[in-house]
Write a structure and sequence with these properties.
It is a single chain. This protein is α+β, with helices and mostly antiparallel strands and 138 residues long. It is built from three helices and five strands; from the N terminus they run βαααββββ. The longest helix is centred in the middle third of the chain and has 15 residues. The chain is elongated and about 50 Å long.
Amino acid sequence: MNKYVYEDLDQGHREEFRITITDEMLDSFRSITGDMNPFHRDDDFAKAHGFQGHAAFGMLTASFLSTLAGMYLPSEKSIIQNTEIKFMKPVYPGDCLTVSGEVAEKNDAYRVIRIKVAMKKDSGEKVLRGSMQIGFLE
């Protein structure tokens, strides 16, 4: 876990981590949310609608933005205030994603930062992009 404070960060500061999506993650997410959409569990259903197979929940992949903010950039003394995201491509079990964030703006008056976020597959395909506004708890 990084332990950045507001003063440690400048525009352009970047952090990233990698995560592999598994069927166990999908099962856990399904259990927590109750989302039983067959697109996320039935290969035949997903293939009949033009996909490679059952896909990960978009909000499961987006949840790794919480990991980015809480563990990497900025870390434990932060709180996500706003998130804007766009899902660009489906994610499938077995896909390894690189989750990245870069400080795009700092607001000294309110001690908040805006981070540009992205997720890419190992193939280079971007699957998510957006931004987060993050405040500091100090």
